[in-house]
Amino acid sequence: MKYLTIKNVIILALMLNLSIVAKGVLAEGYLLESATQVADMRIALKHDGAFLQEFKAQQRTMDIIIAQPFVVPQPTDAGGGYSHEVHKKNSQNLRSAGRLYLLSGKGKYRDYARDMLLAYAKLYPSLSLHPKHKDQSPGKLFWQSLNEAVWLVYSIQGYDAIKNELSAADRAQIEQGLFVPMATFLSQESPQTFNKIHNHGTWATAAVGMTGIVLGNNEWVEQALYGLDKSGAGGFMRQLDELFSPDGYYNEGPYYQRYALLPFVIFAKAIEVNQPQRHIFQYRDSIILKAINTTIQLSYNGLFFGINDAIKDKGLDTIELVNAVTIAYGLTQDAGLLSIAKKQHNILLTADGLLVANALDKGLAQPYAFISQVLRDGTQGDEGALVILRSTPSDSSTTLVFKPTAQGLGHGHFDKLNWLFFDAGLEIITDYGAARFLNVEAKYGGHYLPENNTYAKQTIAHNTLVVDETSHFKGNVKTGNAHHPELHYFEQKGPLQIVAAAMSDAYDDVQFSRTQALVTLANQPPFVIDVLKVKAKQAHQLDLPFHYNGHFISTNADLHSHTSTLKPLGKSEGYQHLWLKAQGRTDADLARITWLTNKKFYTLSTVNTAAQELLFTQLGANDPNVNLRSENAVILRLPKASEHSFVSILEPHGEYNPAQEFTLNSQSQLQFLTHIELDKVDVIRFQFAGQIPMLLALSKAKVASQTKTEFEYLGQPYNISGNAELLTIKEVL
User: Fold this and answer.
1) Sign of CA dihedral 284, 289, 293, 294
2) Separation CA 446–CA 83 (nearest Å)
3) Segment 629-661, tens digit of pLDDT
4) CA dihedral 128, 132, 137, 138 (to 10 degrees)
5) 336: left (phi over 0), alpha (psi -120 to 50) or beta
6) Widest CA span of the chain, in angstroms?
7) Across the strands, what pairs with 427?
């Protein structure tokens, strides 16, 4: 009788395992699905529907790719360069090939992924730091370790899908030559990033944790969750605690919330599948699901609000949100998420993707409700907030975004009490976002441009108060992170949605507050009331910019235009980048400017004073490489004042129809606007053509909504049942 050695038993077991998989019977689960779920996906490919259609589409694409030899180049380029883009695309192709093999069992996809992984396993051990590496977070395959972590998040998914059918030798070479050294580099060799409470740290912990699950290294999983020393001072769980407010708002703003969301949701999904006892999606009152919902809410007409360091063409159709919405639907079966998934036009070849595809096939999608809300900022929700006011529950209705948030770490801008306004599907009062051409190597290697610091982050680039041509906190991030605005109130009363906040520490001796209201009346387009009040110990130059999107139409100011010679508005803190195109004053009760955007007129009307000047600027001065977009602004300037109230109404009106050659109501419909300060309240009185006169009363005290502030106006007693009240006053006029 012939006895089997231990080695032969292991080989036999491996052969049996591979045989079972080859016949379509899964021997074990995977990183993101159970064996049963993979079987269900394979069955789904036998029936017509969105899931099968997506599978065929990806199969056609991948067949073209694998018909060509792949390239694994020596790392040479920074972001956007040839080697950078090839390596990035290779990781995506690895994942796609792995998924196609997992579902189809076709060896060509497995072999493509295997051969590429073997090539990387040969290359990676030979690499030192990238030749163009960033000093603070260097990579090897990429110029920064962040991209290395992203590469690993994608590639480990591809390997997970094929590893059960690889030979023991191939698995050992791939794991020991590539995944082990890469995970080690991202964790033990990069503690400053791995333990950082920041989106770079999130990507690193997700990459190492997912690799630990696939390679069966639980030590890596624990370190990913709780930091290198596993104390909880760093790691994924600490990031969940500190990077999101209780409402799921990410401190750095929507753009980086979108970017950080993918490692949060994909690693959490891997934990849920492989370690369900952790109940990761219930952690901190379901903070991951809250974050997904909040990210969706931080958008207008499919694009994210362009605040802080934001690239403004990113939206809900990005791969991060596709993954987030798909995973969230798999957990909640919220039919509103299906309407977002439908607009994304991207079905994932995952178990959750199958659920989404089947639900869309059955027509189960319901409209997603975009709502007015306060999204608290800060770990405890006590560091200001981002406030969204919408006229209807639509993603393209008239929307006001008010920004009394915390600084937002290094990606934050110096723009306390800034605001944006959206209407008719477009941004009307604008924020510049980031000065950067992402992954365009010809533009500063794809990095943030120098003008991101010299202009985009500076206060004058935003729609808020600038004192003495100096940015908030003197442009110091550390100081900015130590202070935040105070949200006074947020209320919704019939046609009135209103919010108020104050900032005390942006300047040494200046306090300012801002109240903004979105008012929706019958037979009147929704409009904005804006009240910015300034109080200082001594007189200062006060500037209030409004950056607008559109073509200038008219103003009632007597303009002195600079038609032959342009000069920058100032010398530093963003002013050096603004050409002064024209300036002027008016003796009228209101200073007005009207512009045209996409066949619709907008007028900004501001209560006037004799000293108030209007400055018309265009971006582009001191920009030798033409890095900045050419954008327009009007700046309200008080040359010297210690107290002042800027009281304005922004009003959409009229129509310009080039096809039918007619124009309606091209001039403002606002008949009057006045502001009176009483002891307890600010009284703002206004009237539009065809409407009854209106009165907005604002309490000067921070009072609870159930209390009443009494006052008398024009001999008539009134009270505010809360902080603000919009009243018709026809009977007293």
Assistant:
1) positive
2) 14
3) 999 999 999 999 999 999 999 999 999 999 999
4) -10
5) alpha
6) 114
7) 422
- Please give the Cα distance from 682 to 671 (Å, whole number): 20
Residue 695: which of 662, 721, 722, 673 has the closest Cα?
673
Instruction: Work out the percent of the chain whose per-residue pLDDT is above 70.
Output: 95
pLDDT recorded at residue 4:
37
State how far the Cα of 466 lies from the Cα of 472, in Å rounded to an integer. Answer: 7
Query: How many other C-beta atoms lie within 10 A of the C-beta of residue 286?
Result: 17
User: Phi, psi at residue 550, to the nearest 5°?
Assistant: 155, 180
Catalytic-role residue among 133, 198, 200, 411: 411
Indicate the residue type of 234: G
Q: Which helix (H) or strand (E) holds 644?
A: strand 632-653
Phi, psi of 277 (to 5 degrees): -65, -15
Active-site choice (250, 256, 575, 602):
256
Closest by Cα among 342, 362, 357 to 55: 357
pLDDT per residue as tens digits for the range 194-233:
999 989 999 999 999 999 999 999 999 999 999 999 999 9
CA pair distance 439, 428, nearest whole angstrom: 28
Structure-token pair, residue 190: 């990069």
Catalytic annotation present for 256: yes
Residue 397 makes CB contacts below 8 A (sequence gap 6+) with 370, 390, 391
Q: Is 436 left (phi over 0), alpha (psi -120 to 50) or beta?
A: beta
Q: Which two tokens stand for residue 664?
A: 């309606």
Token pair, residue 473, equals 């906190």
411 classed as catalytic: yes
Which amino acid is located at 577 in the chain? H
Spatial contact of 248 and 287, defined as CB atoms under 8 Å apart:
yes
* Whether the Cβ atoms of residue 391 and residue 80 lie closer than 8 Å to each other: no
In angstroms, the CA 288 to CA 247 distance is 10
Distance CA 7, CA 13 (A): 10
675: which strand partners? 684
Whole-prediction pTM value?
A: 0.93
